[in-house]
Amino acid sequence: MCVHFVLHVTSEDNLSFHSYSVNSVMSKYSARPPAIPTTLLDDDVVRIIRWDFEPGADTGHHTHGLGYVVVPMTDCHFLIEEEDGSRHVDVAQGMPYRREAGVSHNVVNAGSEPMSFIEIEYK
Predict the structure, then answer these.
(1) Which of 4, 20, 35, 79 has minimal Cβ neighbours within 10 Å of its Cβ?
(2) Is residue 75 over pLDDT 80?
(3) Strands 104-109 and 2-10: what pairing?
(4) CATH number assigned to the domain with residue range 2-122, chosen from the 4 options 2.60.120.10, 3.40.50.1000, 1.20.120.450, 2.60.120.260
């Protein structure tokens, strides 16, 4: 089963929209506080989203429809949950990495401090 929803995030002076497809595999994970996405730019070329995570917060299981680059704004201590298992990944502040479209995972802040990163999806 796949559920599609649009998440609306409000800030002081803007309203952001971000679409996700969430699979039933999400039920394998315990309830956690949600990470907060803020769309900074969405045009014909890129979508740029800032993700903010309190300790233990997660994105919810999702599949990326676009290739993307992540730029950590803080040191990030990720727990990456995939259908076939999970792994811990530490990425230093400012050290970007790239992934292809089709990545399917849940991203969790496994650290004891808040973390954030910028995700740049290329269209």
Answers:
(1) 4
(2) yes
(3) unpaired
(4) 2.60.120.10
